[in-house]
Amino acid sequence: MIHIHEKTLQDLEFSTVLKQVSEHCITVLGNEKALQITPFSTRESLLYNLQLTNEYLSSFDNDNRIPNHGFDAITKEIKLLRIENTYLEVHSLKKIVSMSISTNDIVTFLKKFEDYYPTLHAFASLIEVTKAIIEKVDAIVDRFGDIKDNASPLLFDLRQNINKIKGQINQSFATALNMYHGLEYLDDIRESVVENRRVLAVKAMYRRKVKGSIMGSSKTGSIVYMEPETTMKYTRELNNLEYEENEEVIRILKELTNFIRPFLPLLENYQEFLIAMDVISAKAKYANSMNAILPEISEDKSMLLRDAYHPLLYLNNLQKKAKTFPQTIELKQDSRIIVISGPNAGGKSITLKTVGLLQVMLQSGMLIPVHERSKACLFDRVLSDIGDNQSIENHLSTYSYRLKQMNYFLKKCNKNTLFLIDEFGTGSDPELGGALAETFLEEFYHREAFGIITTHYSNLKILANELPFILNANMLFDEKTLEPLYKLVIGQAGSSFTFEVAQKNGIPFGLINRAKKKIERSKVRFDATIAKLQKERSKLEKTGESLKINEKKKLQEADKLEETNAKIQKKLESYQELYDSNQRLIYLGQKVDDLSDKYFNNKQKKALMDELFKLVQIENSKRKRVTAKEKKVIKAKEEKVKQEAEKVVTVIREQKKEAKKKAIEKPKPKVTLKVGDRVRMNDGKAIGSIDKIEKNKAVVNYGIFTTNVSMDELELVEAMKK
Questions:
Q1: pTM of the model
Q2: Predicted pLDDT at 625
Q3: pLDDT the model gives residue 393
Q4: Which whole-number Å values give the CA distances from 339 to 169, 173, 258, 508, in the listed order?
Q5: What's the farthest any 2 CA atoms get from each other in the chain?
Q6: At residue 708, what are phi and psi to the nearest 5 degrees?
Q7: Per CATH, is 150-253 categorized as 1.10.1420?
């Protein structure tokens, strides 16, 4: 049996979520129903309702949109149908017909598209489809909302007679009008209408000469409105017929109402079904507004909320066009409890509330804004202690109230419980409150409960480090600016950055140092160590992101290098051909030079010609026969390779010249740094000022912290102004 405490729903602002969901409803009763949503008490009903919402959400992305479920409430009509001898008016009948049509359309549609919406079809199949009410009402009431003439033989005759009498009234009135107008007894307007009857506008002086009944007079008294005597008998007859018509209409409506009365349970089902569809639709629209999904629901107690958003924060930031930072949180058997520490305003409480609110939403049949590969589980209880719970009515302090809460937790906590505690242990003496909080945490741990807490207490951070199934976590901060990065990091406790934050907010160094002396040295060292580790973690996070980006770049560069390698290989082959060609020409040149030298010494022409002819024959034996066109192409290719080679050689020569020039230039004289100079490290960007110089080492003040740096590693940014 699942039970989530009302206090937990208040702490997590669940009512605000319901208000936002209800705004997506299109009916009044649906809106009211949405505001009453509570977590489901059984796993089966919850999973069933999650599927209903998820299937409705899927209808937004396909062509088979579910028909409209809008309706006018028939609550009053249902009450009337329970009372004997009552009858429904025409507008009530029209509402019942409209509701019947809407319900029939949806049920029929879901049956047709059962493959798309199996759970919705199963839900709708419990509703009976009948056209009896629709056909019966349509036979009696026309599309304008009037009772049809042929609704009964008597009504037909009455209306025929009414029309006939109206004709006689008009005819007799026209006769009187013409007669008295000819006698000039009538005013210029001639006629008017009083009490829905046509009357003559008689001049006051002639009222005794006109036969008829006085119906009224003008404001000035100059005109008397009279109904001619000839039309009066027809009017009385008309009144009688209209009364009989009204009686017959009431009889017909009573008969029709008696026909509908046995369908009362069905009409109640129709209304409940359409209210349920309105709420399901509203949940789906709400999910769609924040890209929510149905995560995998695990059978065991393990959850992984990847890229989880706080719904209220996400939608609020969406309106402001501001960024919302998602969190990734995992709870499982070997990491049941997470202790989040770190400075305030870093997002600890939001992370805690995100997990709690998403869990409550999921267990109320709503989809949640997480990554599609997320996994969730269900808890029998979700307990929370969030915010300042000082109780004025009960005269309880915050700490007393929190102790009452802890007592409730101890009674209810077990292996099927998720507990969420913000600022665990605060409100009392830090030493004693911390010890008591540690005992509570140990108790929750031994009961195998799952939970997330936020704290500033060092002993809780140490306990989380010592127990195997509790994890420390912290919210990342920028190590230089101390601005929050709104990113949860599991596996390491967070420093409260108490003194660093105080320094950043302008508290004098002297006061901060005095404060440091007042507390135990070991506490300062512990907090300082955590702060240092947190800064290192922050650096590693940045390095990790940078490495991912670099890895992507390297892969792109590798592809480019492969392409470049292929081009270089092609060029190398061309250069090799050029080199071989040039080597052959050098060899021939040497041979010709040797023959020239020999001829120079012996002056024997015949021997020279024989040697030259032999050399030409040897070279020609190596040649292949090519056409003039092929020869031209080869020559052009060789020329291109030569030009490319010359370009490369020219660049290399220029680089060598530049290197020689730089070697000749004298190095710049080194600047002597002094106390007060603004400097930065050779490979860094942060600028600080020199506070002290000792043995070729400088103490550089960066505002938030100071550091010892070798003088050789510093470069001058700005000399101290004298």
A1: 0.67
A2: 65
A3: 44
A4: 93, 95, 67, 32
A5: 171
A6: -90, 130
A7: yes
